[in-house]
Specification:
The protein is mainly alpha-helical. Helix content is 44%, strand content 10%.
């Protein structure tokens, strides 16, 4: 279970989220690890929007998704495929929400990029390079 705790001026800002995270636990002893979550880096963001999203857009268009016209369209597809969250209402129903890349930590963002790379290779035969690799244009 991963939850983000927002601390501001020494106080927990999202107390309900923290309380809910503990509410479902059974009695017992638990080990809790706290670590500072760093948001994605500017370099990660530039790579994502400058390389990953445009390649996904072209791959989707080549696969027949002609309504994917802009990088923003491709970004929305990525969010739908990889950042979808379900909010349960407690009676078996739920609402699906799209997450945001802006809230991801550097590690979470690296994991997202790796997932996109694997998906793009498997489903669109597109090899998205790693940030440190040269992209060769034909």
């Amino acid at each position: 279970m991963t939850n983000v705790v927002h601390i501001q001026d020494g106080a927990i800002v999202n107390k309900i989220t923290v309380r809910n995270a503990f509410a479902g636990l059974q009695d017992g002893r638990y080990l809790m690890e706290l670590k500072k979550s760093n948001k994605r880096s500017l370099n990660q963001n530039a790579f994502y929007h400058g390389v990953v999203v445009p390649l996904v857009k072209e791959g989707l268009r080549d696969a027949g998704y002609n309504d994917v016209r802009t990088n923003e369209d491709a970004h929305e597809v990525i969010k739908y495929l990889f950042l979808k969250k379900k909010l349960a209402n407690g009676t078996g129903g739920f609402i699906e929400l799209l997450g945001s890349t802006a809230t991801l930590s550097t590690v979470e963002f690296m994991d997202l990029i790796a997932s996109i790379q694997q998906w793009a290779l498997e489903y669109m035969n597109i090899d998205i390079p790693n940030p440190n690799e040269q992209l060769q244009l034909l």
